[in-house]
Amino acid sequence: MACLPLWEDRLGRTLKIVDKDDDPLHQPNICLPRVSPAEDPFYGLETFDGPGPWDRSTLEKMITFSGNDYLNLSTHPAVRKAAAKAALAHGMGPRAPFMTCGHTDYHRLLEDTLAEMTKKDACVITPTGFAARTALLSALGNVASLTSAGRRPTREERIGIFADVLNHPTIIDGLRLVEEQREADVFVYRHNDIDHLDELLSGCPAEKKVVYSESLFGINGDFAPILKLVELRKKHGYLFVVDEAHTILTCGRNGGGIGEVYGIQDQIDICIGTLSKATGCRGGFIACSEGWKKLIQARGQPFTFATSTPVPIIAACYEGIMAQGAVWSRVQEFAALTRCSAMSPLVSLLVGSEQEAVNASRHMLECGFHVTAIRPPVVAPNACRLQLTLTSAHTSEDISRLVAALSLWIPALRADDDRMASRLLMAVEQAEGFAQGTTHISSDSFHSLLSERILL
């Protein structure tokens, strides 16, 4: 997949300069010792029709509604076996950065799989999602500095990066770093406000522009107006970067995220994802073109100087992603299509002050639920909230008990009228029917229960 012409030309010029610096981008392939089929983590890959008893293992003593293990793959037997076999056969694998010792076949196989899933030409695996975000932004900043002939780039030469105000704090940190190095000008637009973004883009003198948005915002639990952003891209020709941290494996028939849901993966230039949430493991990735991969490897410092992800984790990630039969049944178990044709495992309940949010979280703890209070600096002092995350292991009974506990604390949720009580009953019935005889609940039913009373 190729970027827009303006960006393709700038990237090509940047890579020519990188090549002149003789950056060691072509590392030897690391060939791990051959193992027998019985020792091979990927031999006889196991899938399961749906959730099993292991899914509830992390919910035994307290019902957790604050984790990121949306599909409960961290406890999946196939994932456990893959990690264990890889550790027994290869230990941790190369213990140095990619630029020093290269990657293994396991790393390359996972990169190829993620690239195919997001419909990109290449992929870079990073130790964390934070590293993926900052590595990309670091590489973006180098486009301006490398093509300005050894001097500080002028305002026109600097890149203009436009970010939603509710992007994850780690994205904001990466933007601050690039801006402090005077390699880019950062513009923040109002949350999901396309008109404001259009106005900022039109007034920016930079020739090269980037729009960076999460597809599903972790703070609010709402989706970006992705189709409008794609349409605006046609007008301004910006590089479109979408962070699919919360939507990889939870959205799209093949787990490709919101881009797959809308069939616009070819309109997204760079996809940022994580392996620490729905995959149930650890790490991050950048799915992009071959050119961008090369630049990130050379100039994305959070990747360049980070030790390669251990082989057992890579093996576990691959196993979790490839168990598509199990993955898709889990997606169906916990999430139905919402109004925007996407699936969200996140529900954000606005409470108010920091103390009110802390007290609400403590109340839920006393009721047997772990629900995190989101406080400053992540949100404004008067916009603190409870953040709920749904997983494939939660049941309709869990949801009913949760709503009952919430209703004791948050007046807006008190189900003391017939209409609210009937909605609760209908939500539970819909969840049970949706799961085709099981007791697993869908996030759509839960959202429908809360959306009229709570600001999401």
From TrEMBL:
Q: Where in the cell is it found?
A: Endoplasmic reticulum membrane
Which keywords label this protein?
Lipid metabolism, Pyridoxal phosphate, Sphingolipid metabolism, Transferase
Tell me the Gene3D superfamilies matching this sequence. Aspartate Aminotransferase, domain 1, Type I PLP-dependent aspartate aminotransferase-like (Major domain)
Q: Does the keyword NAD apply?
A: no
Enzyme Commission number(s) of this protein: 2.3.1.50
Q: Which GO terms describe its cellular component?
A: endoplasmic reticulum membrane
Q: Which cofactor does it need?
A: pyridoxal 5'-phosphate
Q: Which GO terms describe its biological process?
A: biotin biosynthetic process; sphingolipid metabolic process
Sequence similarity? Belongs to the class-II pyridoxal-phosphate-dependent aminotransferase family. BioF subfamily.
Protein name, as recorded? serine C-palmitoyltransferase
Name its species.
Spirodela intermedia
Give the source lineage, highest ranks first: Eukaryota, Viridiplantae, Streptophyta, Embryophyta, Tracheophyta
